[in-house]
Amino acid sequence: MIKKSLLHALAVAASMLAAFVVATPANALVEININKGNAQPLPIAITDFISGNELGAQISGVIAADLQRSGLFAPINKSAFIEKVSDPSKMPRFEDWKVINAQALVTGRVTREGDGRLRAEFRLWDTFAGAQMTGQQFYTQPENWRRVAHIIADAIYKQITGESGYFDTRVVFVSESGPKNARQRQLAIMDQDGFNVRMLTNTKDIVLTPRFSPNRQEVTYMSFEGQQPRVYLLQLETGQREVVGNFPGMTFSPRFSPDGQKVIMSLQQDGNSNIYTMDLRSRTTTRLTSTSAIDTSPSYSPDGSRIVFESDRGGRQQLYVMGADGSGQTRISFGDGAYSTPVWSPRGDLIAFTKQSGGKFSIGVMKPDGSGERILTSGFHNEGPTWAPNGRVLMFFRQNAGAGGPQLYSIDLTGYNEQAIKTPAFASDPAWSPLLE
Amino acid sequence: MSRTYTPAMSRMQTLARNPAVIALTLALALAGCANKKNMPNNAGDLGLGAGSAATPGSAQDFTVNVGDRIFFDTDSTSIRADAQQTLDRQAQWLQRYPRYAITIEGHADERGTREYNLALGARRAAATRDYLASRGVPASRMKTISYGKERPVAVCDDISCWSQNRRAVTVLGGATK
């Protein structure tokens, strides 16, 4: 587990990079336009970081895996490499890399500082322009070597695509084990690539729908603890838990406001479900919808001014948008079928949803005004999308007919590059963390 | 498939003098419509192992001779005619044995999204509670809880299982508060 002080240290290290960066002006020889859909992945050579042990190769392995899974990069097999890099701060022999069609080259070094910390540095080279694109260094505790690799992968992704990365992120989800009619559920957290899985709760109570706070330090979720289904708050660092609010019925479907000050959720009373917020500081609750329908799955726009939610007030479940104060509730989904679990993109431009139609469950996106609906994947059961912090990739859970349980998948906004995320047990309800700024 | 369950229930009424036979009939009917290896989770309450008659007023009596659950149509919270008969029997039994408080569990099948199904299960539990109240069961004896789609009894991936999972189960609790 990464401690706050360390997070801080990393942030500071990142912010002090400017001095080290020896960037040449981007001459746009190496770039990827990620809006182009099925873009041809960019051939990139990622050399083993120079180190006295296996760590150098491990770090470059994590970087290569991140970039490859993004679908935008094609790491070149190391056996094709001609130049054996021995000093990563020296200009490489670009001809040797051009001849194997490496458009970009990554070199690096990892060393142990006197105080025990790791120092990892890397350089990203544009082989055809014959110039360095960026170079950065990081200090961290040795056990966080994977995290440093993810940060470096993010830096490469950003340099080449012009978009923020999403590799230094985590996913909180529900780990499911046992037969379907006696399923046990635990909250779990892992790195976005499926490594470092850690259970956050035991198997005693049903737990559902975990969501990160904007600062990644807390998770709000629903638990059936004490046969009283309610929304909880969990501090990741301390493990401290508390009930959110003192409501007279089941509370469910929680999510944080973008400023982290409120939890928005549904309250069920006498068969009706309406949407409420609770201010975490003042503990005041505010009712936002007031219908005899099922209003649930609220999700804020990134600027906090609007809320998308699902409601069956018109018959089947449809998506509605309202102001943050509950004003102006307007239906936005009008296609065939039922729409649910809307999630506003961190970029603000799209809303992802689950759609049930023709006996299938699909994941799709539409604009906040309901136009431009696109289905990204469809099948027996796909549910519960969550956005990568750059708004380019979605994760969701899928259960195939006859499968024993659900699994996590990711897919690009373009509908390409669907990837299964391996977890130790069945998994559902993924929620992607924000990037640490 | 819940329709095969209902005749079994009514046949059970006519055969009430031989509970062991009834229990077996009911169990077979359930096994027939569920995936073979996936018995309802109350199968153990059906008296198969003991082979003994349910004591009137016992939890076993309620489950076997009255019927502890009703079923719903897809995405519906209406109490069907067959369910009304079951709830009428529940109401009579609960009035005869006032020592029980009850919890009504609302459930949904898996063909919906998680949050909606939690709300749908809550609606089903509330509709069941309201019906029992209208038949004279004091509201103070009744609690409701929704499990959404999280507690299926039948686990296959087709309608034969989904129809068994769309249910409200009346669970006898401790003493009336």
TrEMBL record, chain A:
<dbReference type="Pfam" id="PF04052">
    <property type="entry name" value="TolB_N"/>
</dbReference>
<dbReference type="Pfam" id="PF07676">
    <property type="entry name" value="PD40"/>
</dbReference>
<dbReference type="InterPro" id="IPR011659">
    <property type="entry name" value="WD40"/>
</dbReference>
<keyword id="KW-0131">Cell cycle</keyword>
<dbReference type="InterPro" id="IPR011042">
    <property type="entry name" value="6-blade_b-propeller_TolB-like"/>
</dbReference>
<keyword id="KW-0732">Signal</keyword>
<feature type="signal peptide">
    <location>
        <begin position="1"/>
        <end position="28"/>
    </location>
</feature>
<keyword id="KW-0574">Periplasm</keyword>
<protein>
    <recommendedName>
        <fullName>Tol-Pal system protein TolB</fullName>
    </recommendedName>
</protein>
<keyword id="KW-0132">Cell division</keyword>
<dbReference type="InterPro" id="IPR014167">
    <property type="entry name" value="Tol-Pal_TolB"/>
</dbReference>
<comment type="similarity">
    <text>Belongs to the TolB family.</text>
</comment>
<feature type="domain" description="TolB N-terminal">
    <location>
        <begin position="31"/>
        <end position="133"/>
    </location>
</feature>
<comment type="function">
    <text>Part of the Tol-Pal system, which plays a role in outer membrane invagination during cell division and is important for maintaining outer membrane integrity.</text>
</comment>
<dbReference type="InterPro" id="IPR007195">
    <property type="entry name" value="TolB_N"/>
</dbReference>
<comment type="subunit">
    <text>The Tol-Pal system is composed of five core proteins: the inner membrane proteins TolA, TolQ and TolR, the periplasmic protein TolB and the outer membrane protein Pal. They form a network linking the inner and outer membranes and the peptidoglycan layer.</text>
</comment>
Automatic annotation (TrEMBL), chain B:
<dbReference type="InterPro" id="IPR006665">
    <property type="entry name" value="OmpA-like"/>
</dbReference>
<keyword id="KW-0732">Signal</keyword>
<keyword id="KW-0132">Cell division</keyword>
<protein>
    <recommendedName>
        <fullName>Peptidoglycan-associated lipoprotein</fullName>
    </recommendedName>
</protein>
<dbReference type="InterPro" id="IPR006690">
    <property type="entry name" value="OMPA-like_CS"/>
</dbReference>
<dbReference type="InterPro" id="IPR014169">
    <property type="entry name" value="Pal_lipo_C"/>
</dbReference>
<dbReference type="Pfam" id="PF00691">
    <property type="entry name" value="OmpA"/>
</dbReference>
<comment type="similarity">
    <text>Belongs to the Pal lipoprotein family.</text>
</comment>
<keyword id="KW-0998">Cell outer membrane</keyword>
<keyword id="KW-0564">Palmitate</keyword>
<keyword id="KW-0131">Cell cycle</keyword>
<comment type="subunit">
    <text>The Tol-Pal system is composed of five core proteins: the inner membrane proteins TolA, TolQ and TolR, the periplasmic protein TolB and the outer membrane protein Pal. They form a network linking the inner and outer membranes and the peptidoglycan layer.</text>
</comment>
<dbReference type="InterPro" id="IPR036737">
    <property type="entry name" value="OmpA-like_sf"/>
</dbReference>
<keyword id="KW-0472">Membrane</keyword>
<comment type="function">
    <text>Part of the Tol-Pal system, which plays a role in outer membrane invagination during cell division and is important for maintaining outer membrane integrity.</text>
</comment>
<feature type="signal peptide">
    <location>
        <begin position="1"/>
        <end position="36"/>
    </location>
</feature>
<dbReference type="InterPro" id="IPR050330">
    <property type="entry name" value="Bact_OuterMem_StrucFunc"/>
</dbReference>
<keyword id="KW-0449">Lipoprotein</keyword>
<dbReference type="InterPro" id="IPR006664">
    <property type="entry name" value="OMP_bac"/>
</dbReference>
<feature type="domain" description="OmpA-like">
    <location>
        <begin position="59"/>
        <end position="176"/>
    </location>
</feature>
<dbReference type="InterPro" id="IPR039001">
    <property type="entry name" value="Pal"/>
</dbReference>
